[in-house]
């Protein structure tokens, strides 16, 4: 069993609660341990959802380059996540916005068309302002939190806030070689 109160590991001197994070009888719990901050970690309160900044161990204050976090204090993190696609910044993502964004990524015409169709087919109706579907398959940025689905990583809550604990759990669980990131082998 792995207890949170086990002896010092990796120089972590912080007193911990006595809860079990893994048991040998269930190997998956040993292989995929949750994120537990090390002593002195800059990321605090990892379990608290953040409305306007996506924090991580690498960026405990979110994205600060060019004053990004300050410029986007009026948007939830999930809105900030999708505004790249909103080319004219009108809070509506048209299919052609997505197509152009995919092409700007360097994707081919066919892949860009397929991605655009899947993205807009899946996200348009949940974000539409009424009960009727949007005939142009537009995605409404102000309502993007309604497009949250069950197969996602759970790094965003139902209101579009960022959940750093779930984000860091992805790396704690799947970074098998402890390189500080993920690659195709993970």
Short characterization:
With 186 residues, the chain is mainly alpha-helical. Helices cover 30% and strands 5% of the residues. The radius of gyration is 20 Å and the shape is globular.
Largest sheet: 2 strands, antiparallel
Please provide the count of β strands: 4
Query: How many helical elements?
Result: 6
Radius of gyration: 20 Å
Amino-to-carboxy terminus distance: 24 Å
What share of residues is helical? 25-40%
Strand order of the largest sheet: 1-2
- Beta fraction of the residues? under 5%
What overall form do the CA principal axes indicate? globular
Oligomer: single chain
Structural class: mainly alpha
Poorly predicted runs are 1-8
| Secondary-structure element order, N to C | EEHHHEHHEH
Report mean pLDDT, rounded to a whole number. 83
Q: What features would you highlight for this structure?
A:
mainly alpha, two-stranded antiparallel ribbon, 186 residues
Would you write up a description of this structure?
The strands form 2 sheets. This protein has a two-stranded antiparallel ribbon with strand order 1-2. Strands 3-4 form a two-stranded antiparallel ribbon. 30% of the residues lie in helices and 5% in strands. Residues 1-8 have low confidence and may be disordered. Helix 4 crosses helix 5 (109-127). The protein is mainly α and 186 residues long. It has 6 helices and 4 strands; from the N terminus they run ββαααβααβα.
């Amino acid at each position: 069993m792995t207890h949170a109160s086990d002896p010092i590991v990796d120089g972590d001197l912080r007193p911990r609660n006595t809860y079990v994070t893994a048991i040998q009888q269930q190997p998956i719990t040993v292989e995929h341990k949750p994120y537990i901050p090390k002593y002195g970690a800059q990321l605090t309160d990892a379990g608290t959802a953040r409305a306007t900044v996506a924090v991580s161990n690498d960026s405990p204050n979110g994205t600060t380059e060019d004053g990004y976090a300050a410029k986007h204090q009026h948007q939830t993190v999930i809105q900030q996540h999708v505004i790249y696609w909103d080319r004219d910044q009108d809070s509506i993502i048209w299919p052609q916005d997505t197509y152009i964004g995919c092409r700007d990524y360097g994707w081919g015409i066919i892949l860009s068309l397929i991605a655009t169709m899947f993205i807009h087919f899946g996200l348009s109706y949940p974000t539409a302002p009424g009960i009727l579907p949007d005939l142009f398959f537009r995605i409404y940025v102000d309502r993007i939190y309604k497009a949250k689905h069950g197969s996602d990583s759970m790094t965003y809550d139902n209101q579009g806030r960022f959940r750093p604990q779930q984000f860091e759990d992805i790396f704690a669980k799947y970074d098998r070689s402890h390189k500080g990131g993920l690659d195709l082998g993970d």
